[in-house]
Automatic annotation (TrEMBL):
<keyword id="KW-0547">Nucleotide-binding</keyword>
<keyword id="KW-0808">Transferase</keyword>
<dbReference type="Pfam" id="PF00224">
    <property type="entry name" value="PK"/>
</dbReference>
<protein>
    <recommendedName>
        <fullName>Pyruvate kinase</fullName>
        <ecNumber>2.7.1.40</ecNumber>
    </recommendedName>
</protein>
<keyword id="KW-0324">Glycolysis</keyword>
<dbReference type="InterPro" id="IPR040442">
    <property type="entry name" value="Pyrv_kinase-like_dom_sf"/>
</dbReference>
<keyword id="KW-0670">Pyruvate</keyword>
<keyword id="KW-0418">Kinase</keyword>
<comment type="similarity">
    <text>Belongs to the pyruvate kinase family.</text>
</comment>
<keyword id="KW-0479">Metal-binding</keyword>
<feature type="domain" description="Pyruvate kinase barrel">
    <location>
        <begin position="3"/>
        <end position="109"/>
    </location>
</feature>
<dbReference type="InterPro" id="IPR015793">
    <property type="entry name" value="Pyrv_Knase_brl"/>
</dbReference>
<dbReference type="GO" id="GO:0004743">
    <property type="term" value="F:pyruvate kinase activity"/>
</dbReference>
<comment type="pathway">
    <text>Carbohydrate degradation; glycolysis; pyruvate from D-glyceraldehyde 3-phosphate: step 5/5.</text>
</comment>
<dbReference type="InterPro" id="IPR001697">
    <property type="entry name" value="Pyr_Knase"/>
</dbReference>
<dbReference type="GO" id="GO:0030955">
    <property type="term" value="F:potassium ion binding"/>
</dbReference>
<keyword id="KW-0067">ATP-binding</keyword>
Length: 109
């Protein structure tokens, strides 16, 4: 089981794919805590419309976010991805949370 492995070997971060709500983050936190992973930080991957809609609530519960541009571009028009990214990064910065932008970076240049 990956949770037991991560807790046993001192994983620092867990990247949670397709987070859609704060409840998803709370569930992951509960699972990690119940296996001794209280210090493991959660990176919520923002990859879909639901995550965009619920971003403020997700941001309150997560340790950091990853803007997954490739998957996000499948959910929203590709022309809107840079604007969404800018908004998400700004909100994460204001909240004091780290933010990673990943995938399909060069395609927008």
């Amino acid at each position: 089981d990956l949770v037991n492995f991560g807790c046993k070997y001192g994983v620092d971060y867990v990247a949670a794919s397709f987070v859609q709500s704060a409840a998803d983050v709370k569930h992951i936190r509960h699972v990690l805590d119940s296996h001794g992973g209280e210090r493991i930080q959660i990176i919520s991957k923002i990859e879909n419309g639901a995550a965009l809609d619920n971003f403020d609530e997700i941001l309150k519960e997560t340790d950091g976010v990853m803007v997954a541009r490739g998957d996000l571009g499948m959910e929203v028009p590709s022309a809107k991805v840079p604007l969404a990214q800018k908004m998400l990064v700004a909100k994460a910065n204001r909240a004091g949370k780290f933010c990673i932008c990943a995938t399909q970076m060069l395609e927008s240049m």
